[in-house]
TrEMBL record:
This protein is part of the stalk that links CF(0) to CF(1). It either transmits conformational changes from CF(0) to CF(1) or is implicated in proton conduction. F(1)F(0) ATP synthase produces ATP from ADP in the presence of a proton or sodium gradient. F-type ATPases consist of two structural domains, F(1) containing the extramembraneous catalytic core and F(0) containing the membrane proton channel, linked together by a central stalk and a peripheral stalk. During catalysis, ATP synthesis in the catalytic domain of F(1) is coupled via a rotary mechanism of the central stalk subunits to proton translocation. The lineage of its organism: Bacteria, Pseudomonadati, Pseudomonadota, Gammaproteobacteria, Cellvibrionales. It holds the Pfam family OSCP. GO terms for molecular function: proton-transporting ATP synthase activity, rotational mechanism. Belongs to the ATPase delta chain family. Transmembrane segments: none annotated. It comes from Pseudomaricurvus hydrocarbonicus. Keywords: ATP synthesis, Cell membrane, CF(1), Hydrogen ion transport, Ion transport, Membrane, Transport. This is ATP synthase subunit delta.
Amino acid sequence: MAELTTLARPYAKAAFESADAAGQLQKWSDMLTLAAAVAQQDGMIKALVSPALTSEQKAKAFADVCGDELNEGAVNLISVLAENKRLTLLPEIQQLFEQHKAQREQSVDVEVSTAFELSGELQDKLAKALSAKLDREVNLSTVVDKSLLGGALVRAGDTVIDGSVRGRLAKLAEAMNS
């Protein structure tokens, strides 16, 4: 997977810089989300890997499926990806674009896993505390994980805060065994 991310990174960066310069970050986010979804459809995957189609035919077919949702810049990106046989990277490009966008907007998506449903008040307090700790606006989503005994597991990008009972017990066992 790291290889796909490495291949997708320059395309995502170019798309982000173009969108940022034009003041169209949300428009490009929407277009890339659509393109990534189209690229993952079974019929489109078969067309994208088909040796019978030229890169121009693949780009045209892809743009036709997306319809009027893509602007000229996005169509150009699709053409470049088709020429370089990289259309299957669109999901990774979209994810990297969203990371650039979140970094620019100083926001982060945070997923909190708990053993029970959190009240709205508790979610607000947690979001404020995480916002202060991470120095970013926090988009909080919660997941109930019945396998947790108690506490919470917080994921914010590549930062993980394990405040679960299971995590604490694992740390205690590790400390006792060393």
